[in-house]
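Tokens in:
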């Protein structure tokens, strides 16, 4: 039969092992969440790069086409520059609702899942 001192020693030993396992579990969860976020970020950056190249080439083609219709190729570039300027102003004026809130919510959702 164990004495109370041996029970207390066993309890402390089990508590130490439990805390060590809990710490290891937190570390593994943190690594899992971090790797998930980094992978998602890399995927989104790659997609952004591909879409940027696509839209640049599309814009050049449209500018040349509009310029052809208007008689001078540089007119098409001016028309598209005005369009992008207006679109940029609209996005800038509502950037919190369009950009900041969805990105913040996405990061929070990733961390909490």
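Residues out:
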């Amino acid at each position: 039969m164990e004495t109370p001192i041996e029970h207390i020693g066993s309890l402390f030993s089990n508590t130490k092992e439990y805390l060590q396992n809990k710490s290891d579990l937190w570390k593994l969860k943190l690594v899992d969440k971090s790797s998930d976020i980094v992978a998602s970020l890399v995927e989104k950056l790659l997609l952004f790069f591909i879409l940027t190249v696509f839209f640049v080439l599309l814009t050049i083609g449209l500018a040349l086409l509009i310029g052809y219709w208007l008689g001078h190729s540089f007119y098409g570039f001016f028309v598209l520059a005005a369009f992008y300027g207006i679109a940029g102003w609209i996005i800038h004026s509502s950037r919190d609702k369009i950009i900041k809130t969805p990105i913040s919510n996405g990061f929070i959702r990733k961390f909490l899942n």
